[in-house]
Design a protein that fits this description.
CATH class: Alpha Beta
Shape: globular
CATH topology: Rossmann fold
Distance between the termini: 23 Å
Number of helices: 8
Bound molecules: thymidine-5'-diphosphate
Oligomer: single chain
Number of strands: 5
Radius of gyration: 16 Å
Number of domains: 1
């Protein structure tokens, strides 16, 4: 999918481990951009399009996991392709500001660095699904795994953890490390934010970066 300047929109993604507050921060930013007069598409992965929301259910329940990590990477890719084709690509073309809760870095961190799908395969899936459509900014909301898991458990209040929340602490720590490594590899795109701070301060840090880099 090609982006056409100058009327093309902007693409901002949020990444981070469980309980890092991504979804809340993505929502706050989307509202702020709308108040600044921007046309906004707030969306999420896995999901974001009707067909991909069905795949989301299969992924989070663990039904895909029985086929192993590569199958899971493939299903995330199928969901992502439909999301891009049906929603994100069109929105950017129309000049909207797309704010997405998780995107390709989650596949790199969870299926790649943590579940062991080789980097070459992850790269190939990215080429097939994302092509050149990289986010303008990716916020990595960073929080120690233990703290994030405690927050996620609180939020869940008695509901069963999904297939990903249920992983051991060491795996969550690996996910955190993977996001930090991506940020180090791609400093032009990625910004690490200290997500242990109070919500309002995290939101301020995010807004500062958006103002500086994209002048909404
Ligand atoms: P979600 O309910 O969105 O959790 P969170 O609030 O933590 O974002 O669940 C999405 C889960 O899917 C999350 O644990 C990470 C996982 N995931 C992957 O493993 N690979 C991916 O490519 C994506 C988009 C998500």
């Amino acid at each position: 999918m090609q982006r056409h300047a100058p009327e093309a929109g902007r693409f901002i993604t949020f990444e981070g481990g469980e309980g890092s507050g991504k979804s809340t921060q993505a929502g706050i930013l989307a509202n702020r951009l709308a108040r600044a007069g921007r046309n906004v598409l707030a969306t999420r992965e896995p999901g974001g399009s009707p067909a991909s929301e069905e795949i989301r259910e299969a992924l989070l329940s663990g039904r895909v996991w029985q086929f192993g990590p590569f199958a899971e990477a493939l299903m995330f890719a199928v969901a992502r392709a439909d999301h891009i084709e049906g929603q994100i690509g069109q929105a950017l073309h129309e000049g909207k500001w797309v704010v997405c809760d998780r995107f390709l870095d989650s596949t790199r961190a969870y299926q790649g660095a943590t579940a062991g799908v080789p980097r070459g395969l992850i790269n190939a899936l990215e080429r097939l699904t994302v092509g050149g459509l990289l986010p303008d900014i990716t916020f990595m909301l960073d929080i120690p795994a233990e703290e994030g898991l405690a927050r996620a458990a609180e939020r869940r209040s008695g509901n069963v953890p999904d297939r990903f929340e249920n992983q051991e602490l060491t795996l969550h720590e690996r996910v955190r490390r993977a996001f930090l490594d991506i940020a180090e590899e791609e400093p032009d795109r990625c910004v690490v934010i200290d997500a242990s701070q109070p919500e309002a301060m995290v939101a301020e840090d995010v807004w500062e970066v958006v103002l500086q880099r994209l002048s909404p």
